[in-house]
Inverse folding.
């Protein structure tokens, strides 16, 4: 496995994700801020409906969101 360069270590991990995952993360967080009573699953279904996504499993999307959230908060602590 290639060694990472020093300059790329400064980039938070969340920015290395693909656009679809970042959009999911932003969408769910925006809905949670706007409508605090909405569940994460409802926010994910809203994202699926808005983007016409029908081939992404809800559990997989939930896991992706949770991983991104964990990475985001870990990077914020540093």
């Amino acid at each position: 496995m290639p060694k990472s360069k020093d300059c790329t270590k400064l980039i938070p991990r969340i920015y290395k994700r693909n656009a679809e995952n970042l959009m999911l993360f932003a969408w769910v967080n925006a809905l949670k801020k706007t409508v605090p009573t909405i569940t994460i699953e409802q926010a994910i279904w809203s994202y699926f409906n808005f983007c016409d996504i029908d081939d992404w499993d809800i559990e997989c999307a939930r896991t992706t969101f949770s991983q991104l959230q964990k990475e985001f908060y870990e990077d914020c602590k540093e």
Summary: The chain has one domain: 16-77. Residues 47 and 53 are 8 Å apart (CA to CA).
